[in-house]
Amino acid sequence: MESIYEKASDTAKKVRKILKKEFPGVKFSVRSDTYSMGSSVNVSWTDGPIKSVVEKAIDWMQSAKFDGMSDMKITVGYEWEGKLYHGADHIDATRVLTPERRESILQHLQNTFESDIDGYFPPADWEAAERQLVDKGELKGEAAPTMERSLNAEQPEGAAAAGKPLAKVIPFPLQEQPSQALTPEQEFKYFLLELSAPIILGLEQKLIRNGKAVDELFTLVANQIYGTK
Fold this sequence. Notes:
Layout: E1 3-5, H1 8-22, E2 29-35, E3 38-46, H2 51-58, E4 64-67, E5 72-75, E6 78-80, E7 83-86, E8 90-96, H3 99-112, H4 123-135, H5 157-162, H6 184-196, H7 203-206, H8 211-226
Parallel strand pairs: 1-7, 3-8
Antiparallel strand pairs: 2-3, 4-5, 6-7
Helix pairs in contact: 3-4, 6-8
């Protein structure tokens, strides 16, 4: 298969094409960024479809993955119209909620869900609450699928339409371990990992309350986001 290297800006053009097809009428901001040792496409929007729905439509176009086994970034590319492209390493999605929508979701959370500490609700609960409101017709928007995602989940319809990636997401090399009390430092790491779960595919399934597992997972995620030194 022919292999083509493209600029992040070219990947961004394809991301716009997918978003326009999958979410007609939604206004997205799509910007590319090239920096030392990498590049990215940054997507942002206000309200509209839930974040995980958008991520499912475009994440397959990322050209790099973090291999936890070798502790390094690997380039996998993605397939588009029968050709292998190596473009933007990462595709980042940022969704902004209007104050009115955020307040509606928060009220539903407070009335329906149980908070963790000092009224804090993890991202998974925010998404579940919003999905419920959308399903009931109380909020407009496309509801997200269940938060239980497989590390080797099939690619979205958008990927099938434009081409499938050549590699699956690499699972974190951690085994299930029993829950246990965490140190204050590990509690903070666990909190940060919870915040990252909606944007890192497969992280939620590996997030367990085990001190050693939390430390190892935190290191892997930090390396995945910022790269190894």
